[in-house]
Amino acid sequence: MIRRAVSWRHSLEQREPAVGFASRLAGLNGRSMRVFLREVCISAHDLDKSRQGALEAVAALGNLDPVQLTQFTPFPVGDGNYVTIGAEALHRLSVRRTYFCICPHCVRDDIFRYEGPIAARPWLRLEWIVTHFRSCDRHNVLLMPQTPVRRRYEPFDFTEWIGRIIPELDGLASDAIPTRPSPFQRWLKDRLEGKRNSGNWLDDMQLYAAVDFCETLGLSALHAPKVRVGSLTESEHAAAADEGFRIANQGEEEIERLLVRLADAQSTTRGFWGLRDTFGHAYGLLEKTKTNPDFAKPRAVFRRVAIAKVPIEAGTDVLGETLEKQVVHTIRSASNVSGAHSLTIRRLFERKRLRDEQTLQLMDHRVTIGSDEVEGMLMALKTALTTTQVQKTTGIPRKHLFYMINAGHLPTVTASNEKAYAKHRFTQAAVDDTLERLFSGTVPVAKPTGRQMSILRARQASVSGLNEIIDFLFSGQIWKGLLAGRREYGALLVDADEIIAAIRRGRSKSGFSKPEAAKFIVGMARDSVGKFVASGHLELVEEFSPEARRNVQVVSRESADAFLQNYVSLGELSHTAGLHHKQVRSALRTVGIEAHFDPDDFLSFFYVRADVNGALQRNPDLWSSGVKRRA
Predict the structure, then answer these.
(1) Residue 240 falls within a domain, yes or no?
(2) pLDDT score of 213
(3) Of 350 and 603, which is predicted with more confidence?
(4) What 3-state DSSP class applies to 528?
(5) Out of 260-269, 502-511, 596-605, which region has the weakest mean confidence (pLDDT)?
(6) Are residues 205 and 285 in the same domain?
(7) What digits encode the pLDDT tens for the residues 205-224?
(8) Among 25-29, 73-77, 305-309, where is mean pLDDT lowest?
(9) pLDDT value at position 19?
(10) What are phi and psi of 622, to 5 degrees?
(11) Is residue 63 within 8 Å of 9, Cβ to Cβ?
(12) Domain count along the chain
């Protein structure tokens, strides 16, 4: 059927779909769209389904090239789950077919711009039927949904409904909710117009996938993981879409930053640590579409971060791929893998300083660590020996064994060497290696001499510390014997005299005992030393004494030297001046110098050395004047 263009028509607007153009044609010619389509023999159902014949007929009536009319008209494709607009694809439900939204300010602008019947002046924007547009970027207000009369198998009549709401248009305009310009919508409009930006991470994705990802990513960024989407307002949905676009537009690094933040936030919660509960609606979308290649890019980012940050068991399906090896452990999962108690694992984490103190206050299933850092330990713990088991198999006494652990001679699986009474665990190989080094170089002995004895007896005979004897054994500095026919710790022999000589060799004491300190500091009474130690003017430290063959408390040489630099005794001054101590005191008193420390408390006379030296510089005959007064 050949159709001619109708006389009353407006030009096609940018992004005007066919259903809106047909409705305006009908309104300009004084008809409802339903009647108009029947009169020109166009099936309303075909127009509703965007069938090619109906679109070509409408284009002919409007004197249009059909390509122009179909550029921004949604077309159902395939199984009906998607529609195409130009070269882009959206979900079927992304296009409103039973209702539309309007910006009342745009409607008023159209009324003043065009001629003809008032209802036929406004035109339907593509943004008003695509659900992802929620605001008008020209007037910065939220779009207002309208519910036109819906007839079965027919598209809604846009112009007819505009005619009904014109009387209340001013009220709608005043009720419109202000909002901010939307970067997400500007990008979406560009995509629908065929514009792409190579620097935008989203622009090599199918539009429907990119849009869904932006909106759900924004929900994950701004709301709790289990937020009910239906409870959110249009403003909140719009804010989520903009936030999701802001993040995704910048690429994988920014997306990963968000996902790490979400994972860290989840680590402070209780209960099961699930991926959906951690990453929110965005993960839910990717889980539902895990076989869809159009979501491969965001899926790869989420999978990578999830595996690196969340304790996922090996064998778990993570967005379509099975995790072969657990990458992150918690205290609980590490306990399950190793068979060790969770408290043992917690102490292991603490000793290795793998997490800060605040993190270690979390529940066992929230303290995480990379499996590479502890995998060897966990495997070793499965067959590790306890301290009691090592004592039984080696015959090493408990105290000796603990020193070997603390000194690093016997390494532990759990790196617990520094803790004296931790629950140590050992591999059989470590125990065997320790015994091998302990017995290395031993000489078989049939009948020991009087000074060749066991470690326990040698310790008493040499009056030495256990730790030194054990260190000598492992370093090979002393002779080692082994009772013939035996290979156990109790059969190990050492020479007591050699131990004494080894202890004394190359070691000296620099500090002073209290009697020695009294001799070193001229004029200090023996009983005064303790007084000056108590007051903090002399310092007690521990040093090894070769004579006693043990650590003893001594007055440090540094504190004694410092004391002599700062103070001078009455005895030293008497010796220097060649005067009786009373003459010295009398001379000092004449220039106003008194003892710095109370002689009754400290049992000695000490003066500030700088004060005495200053007085002598001012009066070199100070001591002579003291003699004259005495005479």
Answers:
(1) yes
(2) 96
(3) 603
(4) helix
(5) 502-511
(6) yes
(7) 999 999 999 999 999 999 99
(8) 305-309
(9) 95
(10) -55, -45
(11) yes
(12) 5
The per-residue pLDDT for range 386-429, each reduced to its tens digit, is 888 888 888 888 888 888 888 888 888 766 666 655 677 788 88
Instruction: Classify strands 443-445 and 481-483 as parallel, antiparallel or unpaired.
Output: parallel
- Tell me the average pLDDT across 4-18: 88
131 and 187 assigned to the same domain: no
100-102 and 88-91 strand pairing: unpaired
Does the pLDDT of residue 366 top 80, yes or no? no
From the number of C-beta atoms within 10 Å of its C-beta (0-12, 13-18, 19+), residue 67 rates as exposed
Please count the CA atoms within 13 angstroms of the CA of 112 that sit on its side-chain side: 5
At a CB cut-off of 8 Å and minimum separation 6, what does 500 contact?
A: 462, 464, 549
Helices and strands, number each (H, E), in the chain: 31, 21
Residue 631 has a pLDDT of 44
Q: Counting beta carbons within 10 angstroms of the beta carbon of residue 376, is it exposed (0 to 12), middle (13 to 18) or buried (19 or more)?
A: exposed
Spell out the SS3 assignment of 77-145: ECCCCEEEECCEEEEHHHECCCCEEECHHHHHHHHHHCCCCHHHCCCCCHHHCECCCCEECCCCEECEE
* Contact (Cβ atoms closer than 8 angstroms) between residue 58 and residue 42: yes
Tokens 């179909």 label which residue? 70
Report the length, in residues, of the chain. 631
| Residue 574 belongs to some domain of the structure | yes
User: Which two three-digit tokens encode residue 246?
Assistant: 């802001």
DSSP 8-state class, residue 513: -
Furthest CA-CA distance within the chain = 151
Please give the average per-residue pLDDT across 157-162, as a whole number: 95
> Which residues form the domain of 191?
183-322
**Token pair for residue 112?**
């003043």
Within a domain: 350: yes
CB of 547 closer than 8 Å to CB of 507: no
* Residue 8 domain flag: no
Q: Are 266 and 278 in contact (CB under 8 A)?
A: yes
Judge contact between 454 and 445, C-beta under 8 A.
no
Q: Give the pair of three-digit tokens for residue 191.
A: 């995509």
Query: Percentage helix, strand, coil, to 5, in the chain?
Result: 50, 10, 35
Burial of 362 (0-12, 13-18, 19+ CB in 10 A): middle
* Phi, psi at 17, each rounded to 5°: -80, 165
300 residue type, one letter: A
Q: Please tell me whether residues 472 and 573 are part of one structural domain.
A: no
Model confidence band, residue 492 (pLDDT cutoffs 50, 70, 90): confident
* 451 and 476 inside one domain: yes
Across 405-546, where does the E strand assignment appear?
425-426, 443-445, 452-454, 481-483, 492-495, 540-545
Give 378's contacts (C-beta < 8 A, 6+ positions apart). 329, 334, 337, 338, 371
DSSP 18-58: HHHHHHHHHHHTT--HHHHHHHTT--HHHHHTT-HHHHHHH
Structure confidence by residue, pLDDT tens digits, 59-102? 999 999 999 999 999 999 877 789 999 999 999 999 999 999 99
**Are residue 367 and residue 262 in the same domain, yes or no?**
no
